[in-house]
Specification:
By secondary structure, this protein is mostly beta strands. The protein is built from 2 helices and 10 strands; from the N terminus they run αβββαβββββββ. It has one domain: Rieske Iron-sulfur Protein, CATH 2.102.10.
Length: 138
């Protein structure tokens, strides 16, 4: 009774098991035809993201506003650069986040734009934790 592939491709929610994702590792899944990066952030990455003065950011948003309370180690973002729609590379660039090699946009470990032509942070898709080790996107 699961939905067929065309329904899933159109945007049905997907569940992702986080238990195999090691600390410091990223995985990429697809939802609605878009790449979704799920990052299991280290304490160092979280601390660095939270130490940045929000007012200094081109698209001001706190790290806490980009993650689910109680699950601060998990960052879930749509992996599409907000400049021209390229796919950034995880764990690259100056901020231990995401780097878009096409035009040089750099995002931090919270997916916030820090440098380059991108006008906005990487988008956070709608998601919820259905358990401590599983999320539902969509």
């Amino acid at each position: 009774m699961n939905p067929d592939a065309s329904t899933i491709a159109a945007g049905a929610p997907i569940e992702v098991d986080l238990s195999p994702v090691a600390e410091g590792q990223d995985i990429k899944v697809f939802w609605r035809g878009k790449p979704i990066y799920i990052s299991h952030r280290t304490k160092k990455q979280i601390d660095e993201a939270r130490a940045v003065p929000v007012a200094s950011l081109p698209d001001p948003q706190s790290d806490e506003a980009r993650v689910k309370s109680g699950h601060d180690q998990w960052l879930v973002v749509i992996g599409i650069c907000t400049h021209l729609g390229c796919i950034p590379i995880a764990h690259e660039g100056n901020y231990d986040g995401f780097f878009c090699p096409c035009h040089g946009s750099q995002y931090d470990s919270s997916g916030r734009i820090r440098q380059g032509p991108a006008p906005a942070n990487l988008a956070v898709p709608p998601y919820t934790f259905v358990s401590d080790t599983k999320i539902q996107i969509g």
